[in-house]
Amino acid sequence: MSRTEEINKMTENVYKGILDQFNPSLKNFVTMGKHYEKALTGVTVAAKGYFDALVKLGELASDSQGSKELGDTLFQMAEVHRQIQVQLEDVLKLFHSEMLTQLEQKLELDIKYLTATLKKYQSERRSQSESIERCQSQLKKLRRKSQGSRHPNKY
């Protein structure tokens, strides 16, 4: 294998390595991020149920004379929990819009770009190889003609 062929093979292997290994790993990362987002959404739904239960317990405790302080404490807990939940929902929206969506779009663009670049490289390489082969063939013909000729300098 010539040095040029080795370099060509290594170049193609770099492109294929990115397309066959790195990008699928990145796709898997995006998929896991979506599963994480879905799990957090489930936690949000469960947390809202918990929040509602805390509020009801606080209302019940506030209605009785002996547990008024307990009711107030439960209301405070519910308010803190609600604030945390709102922050979590905001972070979840940002996670989706700024990370997952952006990463997914960039990944698709990267795959298209790498595929097109690899095809262009292979096409140019093929064209150059064919051109070199043609030139070598013409050179061989000229050498044969010059060897059998009385005027080799002519060729």
From TrEMBL:
Q: Which residues form the IMD domain?
A: 1-155
Q: Which InterPro entries match?
A: AH/BAR_dom_sf, I-BAR_dom, IRSp53/IRTKS/Pinkbar
Q: Where is the composition biased (Basic residues)?
A: 140-155
Q: What GO biological process terms are annotated to this protein in UniProt?
A: actin crosslink formation; actin filament bundle assembly; plasma membrane organization; positive regulation of actin filament polymerization
Q: Which Pfam families match?
A: IMD
Taxonomy, superkingdom: Eukaryota
Region annotation Disordered: where it falls in the sequence: 125-155
* GO cellular component terms attached to this protein's record: cytosol; nucleoplasm
The record's section on PROSITE patterns has: IMD
Q: What is this protein called?
A: IMD domain-containing protein
Protein species of origin:
Fundulus heteroclitus (Killifish)
